[in-house]
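Subgroup meeting minutes
Present: P.N., E.W., G.H.
Scribe: E.W.

1. P.N. recapped why we're keeping a running log of single-chain structure predictions: easier to compare across weeks, and new members can see raw inputs and outputs side by side.
2. G.H. added today's entry (433 aa).
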Amino acid sequence: MAGTKTYRVSRGAWYAVFVFFLFMVLHNSDKFLISPLLASIRDEFNLTFTQLGAIQTGASIVAVIFMPVWGYLFDKYARPLLAALASAIWGCTTVLSTFSRNFVELAFTRALTGIDNEATSGIVSFIGDNFPPEKRSTAIGVLNTSGALGALIGTLIGTLMGTAFGWRSAFIVTGVPGLLLAILILTTLKDKPRGSTEPELMAVKDRLKDTFRKDSLIRVLRRKSMVFLFVQGFFGVFPWQIITYWFFLYMTEIRGLDSETQLLVMLVALLTMVVGNVVSGVISDWAFRKTLKGRAVFAGISVAIGLVFFDLTILTREGVELFLLLAALTAFFIPMAGPAVSASIQDIALPEVRSTTLSVQVFVENSGSAFAPLITGYLADIIGLELGMVIIITITWAICAVVLTAASLTLPKDIEWKRGELAERAKKLASQG
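Output recorded in log:
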């Protein structure tokens, strides 16, 4: 069996998942809030599709710049403290957006919200030190449901609050909780030694004191599997940027759906996305226990299936009921690769550079996809929003599926490399004792 020793997960570990689940739900609601508000913002400032795309691209670029910074800090210092800081930044920058009086001010203040957008590498690293390898996908899958629930909350706030009181009021509602969560994280969570749930290090976990080391990062980044995982990440996030930013406007402009129908579609799709994340975590862990390449194989298959259902959803025009069904099936499959990929990176990364490695992955993902909303907006002005979405998403997810399949061929060797490194480290620590 490819798995590891049985490890009983503590209540404290699941409490950490719960706290960061709240953090990510509310943070994602803030990120997704702008999508249902685009029509109001466009009308107030008289913007083009390209300008609307530039607003989101600006926030994505700022997030890309800060990703490596967050990764290094989370590997070097106490992770709960840094997560609390990120939460406070999110609250302050979101409220600042409400003071925008024109397109330039809104683009600038919304860009500032990207500062903390990808501090999640430290959160996933922290969760990795609470769960053993064979259970990490399940924990990450539960954590990733926050994306769908956050999108649902952001959609409801944006649609209801934005319609009744204007788009500025919606930003206030999602910004204030960030400050409250900062207090909760600071007062209830404590950091853990990096690598404390790795099977090879459990016997010496009380002696683990390693933090960020440059040589460790270099050795991890040289592994062949990391190259494949980085490449798939570069292409894999393009569709997410497009869907989360443009889908509401697509339903309004192309499908001609009223606000009530749009909410129903999003509600069903987001709830099935929650289920998809949980199911994917469980299946990913099961596949890993069967074979070390199981997670990558599962991820590649799920991406391919999700792409097929997405194209069917956009291109099929036989009524609202079929559109709703296809959207739900798409939403079930498209998040499934996430927990598998995140866990696979932790299967390779040495504990002291786990957050930095994850942040490099997210940096690669967003360095390209940051321009996805802008590119889609440009194509929408030329050939139409529907065709622009289909072209970009089909190409990028097809590449992603192929690259994930290639990663399955190199992962076993790289996982064994990491296990050997940790076994040697455990011997040295034991001899020092």
